[in-house]
Structure formats: C-alpha cells, structure tokens
C-alpha cells in the first residue's frame, strides 16, 4: 500500500506565519495509521509527502508530524502545480492520495485535488474522516462526513484520491527527533507548468460584512431585526395553539407536526425492506 | 341631518315587566342602538382558563372580545394572523433574455436554507429580464416561492457524486446558462468543483457578495477580498446573501437533453446516520429538552429514545443535577443549530430562548398559556407535559405494533 499526502504551504490564520495546514497534518495521521494497518515492508513503501512550490522549508513540519520522506518539486511562485504533481503521481502510482479539502492562507479554492483526479483519471472521495482497508483485497473503506455527525461509508477499489475533512482525528503531536530524521528529496520540474483557468480578480483589504438575519424584512427597524434574531417572527407568528387538548390528541398533533417537517421518520417506511 | 330624538319614557315602558304591582324593568335586554353595556363579571368568567386548579385568566385581547360577546374561549385555534392577504401574483418571465442556473443540494427533496439564499443571489443576478432555472437531481419542492422561473428535474443518478456531476453538466451544456450558482456546502462545493474541472472553467468559490456589478470572495485567510465580474461558475457562502423577498415565480418545468451517467466506480455506498445519543448538542438535528415542568425524567428519556432525538435540558434541571451539564441549552449552555426543538415543560427564559434562536421549528408543551416558549413555538400545546409524554409513547408503540403486524418478523419482504 503506497500512500502519498499532498502538502501545501499554508499560513497560520492568526499570525500569518508559514505553517503546515491542520487538514494536511490530519491527512498524515490517517496515512500513517493506514500504512501501519497494511504493514510497511520497506522505507520506500512508507507514506510520503509531495509538495510543488518554490520552497521545501514551508512544508518541512510534515516530517515532524509523522512522514519519513518528502518529495519537493521546484516551481516558480504562482505557477499551476497540477501538471507537475500529476506527472510525479503518475510516475510513482500511489494507491491512495490524500489532500486537505481546502488550502489555508492561499487561494483556498480547493480545486487542485479535483484537477488532479481528472488528470490521473481516478475517483475522488471528498471530505473523508477515516480510511480503513476494505473486506476484499485491494479495496478501501472511506467514511465521508455529511455534516452534523452523519457519515457516508464508501467502498472503492484501486487507486483513489481523497480529501480530508476537519472532523477527522486530530493530528499527531509534532516530534522534533522525527523531523530531524526525515529526508527531503528535491526533484526537478517534470512538466511544463501550463496556466490553468484563472479568473482576473481585483484585490482589496478584507471587509467584514454583516451576516444576514434570516426572516428580517429588508429595511426593517431594529425591533424587527431583534424579533427575527430571537426567532419570534418566523414560524411562531403563524403557529398553531392548542389550549387544553386531550393528551392523546396532543400526542397525535405533535407527531404529525414532527413528521411534516421531516425530523421523525414516517411510520410507513420499513427499516429493512 | 339630525339624529333621531330619543324618547326615554317610551323606552322604559317597552322594558317594563308586566307582573306585580311595583314597577320593575328588565334591563338585561340589549338596547337597540348605542354602545353595548359591559358586564365585567361575565367578561372575567369568560377569560378564565379552564382546567387549572388555580384560577388563571387569559387577558389577551382576542379572548376579551370573545368574552364580550358571551362566547367561551376556544379550545383549539390558529393564532390571529394580520388579515389574510390576497395570494400574491405569480411573476411570469415568458422569454428570458438569459438564464442563471442554480444547482441546489435539495436533500430529501426540500430546498435547504442555504439553497434558498443561493436562489436569492441568482434572482439578483437575473434581474428583470433574466430567468432563474433550478437544476435538481431528483424532485425538489418549493422552487417557485424561492424565486425560480424554470425548473429542470433530472433523474436521480444515485449516490455517486461523479455520476451526479456528469448528469448535471450535461443538462447545463444543453441549457447554456450565463451563470451557474452552487451552495458552498459539503455536497454543493464538491459538485461545483467536479463540474468546473469537467467543463474546464474557473470556479469563483465561496462568494460572500453577489451582485450584477461583481462577486466578492475572501482569500488568504480573510486578509484580502477578491472581486471579479460574475463568471460562468460560482459558489455562494452560507448566510451571506438574503433569500428572494419578492413575489413568487412560476417554476415552469423544462425538459433538457440528458446523457446517460457513467458507470459508478464506487463498489458500495452506505449512509450512516449520526447517533443522536452521542452527537454533540450544538450539531444535533432534532433536540428534545426537559424543563422544570417535568418530574418523571425516566419517561422523558424513553420519549427521547423513541423519537431518536438528542436530549437537552433547561438550566434549572442541570443546576439541580437531574440532567448532565453538557445537555444545558441556552446562553450559558449550548446554542443550538437544530432544525427542530421540542420543549417539554419549559417556560422559556430569555437566556434559554437565545439558545434556540437558530431553530427553525419549535414545538412546546407547557401548562402556562402565557409562557414565552408557547409564544415562540410553531406548535404550542397548553397541557401538562407529564400527561403528554406517556400518550406520545403509547402512540409510537401502537404504530410500531401495527408495522410489526403488517411485516411479521419472518417475512423476508
């Protein structure tokens, strides 16, 4: 089982110093665990990191997070990393490629894993929180986050690309000795960095905008916005009121209401059809 | 025009009681004109809330007017609404100059709040001449009031997102919209990036401002914002753009040429719902909470398990040690993001209401008609929660029994 972790040069959200993005540190934890589950025959088959950018020092923290080897493709600042990464990944052919779902401190568009999956013609599983070997040989079982604690368990065969969700297990602690023992392999640029599709943008300092208060009428007064914020103007203003009903009737009304808004499963659906 | 002159002597003769020698007058009859005579005792009796052991009175104006007319308070009624408006006219765009497509998540066939915001953003981009078209994989209801002029319903391609992207990309290629908007949610953002790579078009993701003049997105850890003219594909951040506030649109159904979805490369997919007993309260979808009006917390736990809800509690119960502290809802506990909140025996202190401000639906059971929670609730029941909980359990058990009878355990179907 060969696992590659895509690494990016991140910026800390508060101090803006160069840092390994947390999502990629979580991806390293998933990769090292999975590598241990499969058993590592030799050093070359261990999970490795891959970074394309001007400076390898930006991602050297990944060695301390648990990777033994980093591959660095030298690219000029602002060049499209997808062709170089795709060429290197096609050459090494890892069975699993892990990446963060978004970058941190850069463009943060999250498009690179998708472009790589298209270039390598591999299935992409987004927002993964856990990866385990499947029941059959050569298959992987990935748990995708659907938000609010719900998961989708996907079983897929063969080489696959997955992006990591923040709900994945917390990253391993940084270890200085591991960071000193790890090696960084520098590779020359393997393909011409062509320009991907880019939108011309105009940049300004960020301005925080007010969040939309749901249900408040446009141009309403402060009292109306307060009512909307405490939820008194929504369903409450057109709600139903039952004064002293029979408890049985009240239970029927409650259940019908809960089913209508879809939080309680309807009675007709049988759990095991 | 002069007013008719009253004749007090004739009026008094008309109400004179004939029996007896002493002159007596029946003043209970309603006078023909003028202001009706008030009867404070009858009004007070009419305002009395039936059933409570302690005398309690409902002083809200509607009850007062009913009491004035001698009616008893109604048992079930819909809240007074501010005069039924005529149904708003549906706006029809016969021949849109251009199309703005919206691809909603539409989980479970319903538009989410985020989807409605994206439709509002699309409506601002479309303006008066353009048309908004909703492209949904599977059925989706409520598109017209949310601002959709056209609706394309595609066959549900299954759980594989690659197949879904292929189906929707084929439909978009046929429709040729000027802009396509997606919600920047887990599924919507995934779909948008797949389609962007498929079409070879740049994606303007996570737009926080959507206007015909330009889109704005944060970048580099919210240090800068990037502005660009509306392009082909964009995703819209949550809670950044208001819903469509204008008149409803027609959401006319369109048919487009579809391509067969490619074979799925996933061997199997299985949805694992969140375990409501262990999911953090802040993430829970459906919270059932107990307040000081409950004494039987064992029944409450059974109700929570039967409804597959996450348990919550008011501050009073947590302070008393009857419920764990991490279940506390409110300003000093957890602020919920639930879809539905079911309050049993909670009157609704302001700090508690702050905790449920984000809940779309609230169901309240409380003995106090004037509790803030009853006012806040979409379905409010003035009844003892101790009596309603066993009734709810019985009803659920009865339904489960009927289901068992319909599908016996040995039946393979």
Automatic annotation (TrEMBL), chain A:
Transmembrane segment boundaries: none
InterPro entries: ETF_a/b_N, Rossmann-like_a/b/a_fold
Chain ranges of the Electron transfer flavoprotein alpha/beta-subunit N-terminal domain: 24-187
Chain spans, region Disordered: 209-242
Keyword terms of this UniProt record: Electron transport, Transport
One Pfam family hit: ETF
Keyword flag Electron transport: yes
Protein name: Electron transfer flavoprotein subunit beta
Naturally occurring in which organism (per UniProt): Methylobacterium terricola
Organism classification: Bacteria, Pseudomonadati, Pseudomonadota, Alphaproteobacteria, Hyphomicrobiales
UniProtKB/TrEMBL annotation, chain B:
UniProtKB keywords: Electron transport, Transport
Gene Ontology molecular function: electron transfer activity; flavin adenine dinucleotide binding
Biological processes annotated in GO: fatty acid beta-oxidation using acyl-CoA dehydrogenase
Annotated organism of origin: Methylobacterium terricola
Biased composition (Basic and acidic residues): 1-14, 36-46
Name of protein: Electron transfer flavoprotein subunit alpha/FixB family protein
SMART domains according to UniProt: ETF
PANTHER family for this protein: ELECTRON TRANSFER FLAVOPROTEIN ALPHA, ELECTRON TRANSFER FLAVOPROTEIN SUBUNIT ALPHA, MITOCHONDRIAL
Region of interest (Disordered), ranges: 1-56
Keyword Transport carried by entry: yes
UniProt xrefs under Pfam families: ETF (PF01012), ETF_alpha (PF00766)
Highest taxon, organism lineage: Bacteria
Keyword Chloroplast: no
Residue stretches making up the Electron transfer flavoprotein alpha/beta-subunit N-terminal domain: 100-270
InterPro entries listed in its UniProt record: DHS-like_NAD/FAD-binding_dom, ETF_a/b_N, ETF_a/FixB, ETF_asu_C, Rossmann-like_a/b/a_fold
Family listed: Belongs to the ETF alpha-subunit/FixB family.
């Amino acid at each position: 089982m060969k696992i590659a972790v895509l690494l990016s040069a991140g910026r800390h959200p508060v101090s803006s110093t160069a840092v390994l993005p947390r999502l990629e540190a979580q991806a390293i934890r998933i990769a090292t665990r999975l590598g241990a589950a499969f058993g590592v025959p030799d050093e070359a088959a261990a999970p490795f990191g891959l970074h394309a950018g001007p400076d390898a020092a930006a991602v050297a923290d990944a060695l301390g997070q648990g990777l033994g080897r980093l591959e660095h493709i030298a690219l000029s600042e602002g060049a499209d990393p997808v062709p170089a990464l795709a060429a290197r990944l096609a050459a090494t052919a890892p069975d699993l490629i892990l990446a963060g779902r978004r970058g941190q401190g850069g463009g943060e568009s999250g498009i690179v894993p998708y472009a790589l999956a298209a270039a390598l013609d591999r299935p992409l599983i987004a927002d993964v929180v856990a990866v385990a070997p499947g029941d059959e040989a050569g298959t992987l079982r990935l748990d995708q986050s659907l938000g609010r604690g719900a998961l989708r368990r996907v079983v897929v065969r063969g080489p696959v690309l997955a992006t990591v969700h923040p709900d994945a297990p917390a990253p391993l602690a940084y270890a200085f000795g591991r960071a000193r023992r790890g090696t960084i392999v520098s590779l020359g640029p393997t393909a011409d960095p062509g320009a991907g599709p880019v939108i011309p943008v105009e940049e300004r300092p960020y301005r925080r905008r007010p969040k939309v208060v749901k249900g408040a009428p446009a141009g309403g007064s402060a009292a109306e916005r307060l009512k909307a914020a405490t939820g008194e103007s929504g369903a409450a203003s057109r709600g139903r009121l039952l004064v002293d009903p029979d408890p049985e009737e009240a239970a029927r009304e409650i259940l019908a209401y809960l089913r209508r808004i879809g939080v309680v499963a309807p009675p007709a659906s049988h759990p095991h059809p | 025009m002069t007013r008719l002159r009253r004749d007090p002597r004739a009026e008094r003769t008309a109400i004179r009681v004939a029996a007896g020698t002493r002159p007596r007058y029946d003043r209970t009859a309603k006078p023909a004109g003028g202001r009706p005579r008030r009867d404070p005792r009858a009004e007070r009796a009419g305002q009395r809330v039936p059933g409570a052991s302690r005398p309690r009175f409902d002083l809200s104006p509607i009850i007062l007017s009913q009491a004035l007319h001698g009616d008893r308070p109604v048992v079930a009624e819909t809240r007074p609404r501010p005069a039924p408006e005529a149904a708003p006219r549906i706006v029809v765009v016969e021949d849109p100059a251009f199309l703005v497509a919206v691809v909603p998540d539409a989980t479970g066939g319903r538009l989410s709040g985020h989807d409605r915001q994206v439709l509002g953003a699309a409506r601002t981009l479309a303006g008066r001449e353009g048309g908004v078209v909703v492209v949904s994989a599977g059925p989706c209801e409520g598109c017209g009031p949310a601002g959709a002029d056209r609706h394309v319903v595609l066959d549900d391609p299954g759980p594989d997102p690659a197949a879904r992207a292929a189906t929707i990309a084929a439909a978009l290629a046929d429709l040729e919209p000027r802009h396509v908007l997606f919600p920047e949610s887990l599924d919507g953002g995934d779909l948008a990036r797949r389609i962007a790579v498929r079409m070879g078009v740049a994606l303007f993701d996570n737009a926080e401002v959507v206007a015909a003049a330009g889109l704005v997105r944060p970048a580099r850890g919210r240090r800068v914002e990037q502005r660009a003219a509306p392009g082909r594909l964009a995703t819209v951040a949550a809670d950044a753009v208001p819903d469509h506030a204008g008149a409803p649109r027609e959401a006319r159904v369109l048919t487009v040429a579809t391509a067969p979805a490619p074979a799925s490369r996933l061997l199997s997919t299985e949805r694992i719902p969140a375990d409501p007993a262990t999911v953090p309260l802040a993430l829970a979808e459906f919270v059932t909470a107990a307040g000081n009006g409950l004494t039987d917390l064992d029944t409450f736990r059974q109700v929570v398990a039967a409804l597959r809800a996450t348990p919550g509690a008011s501050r009073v119960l947590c302070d008393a040690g009857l419920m764990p502290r991490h279940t506390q809802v409110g300003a000093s506990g957890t602020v919920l993001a639930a879809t539905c909140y079911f309050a049993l025996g909670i009157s609704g202190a302001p700090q508690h209401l702050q905790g449920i401000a984000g809940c779309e639906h609230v169901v309240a059971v409380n003995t106090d008609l004037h509790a803030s929670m009853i006012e806040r609730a979409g379905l409010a029941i003035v009844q003892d929660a101790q009596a309603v909980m066993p009734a709810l359990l019985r009803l659920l058990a009865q339904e489960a029994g009927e289901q068992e009878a319909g599908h016996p355990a040995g039946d393979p179907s």
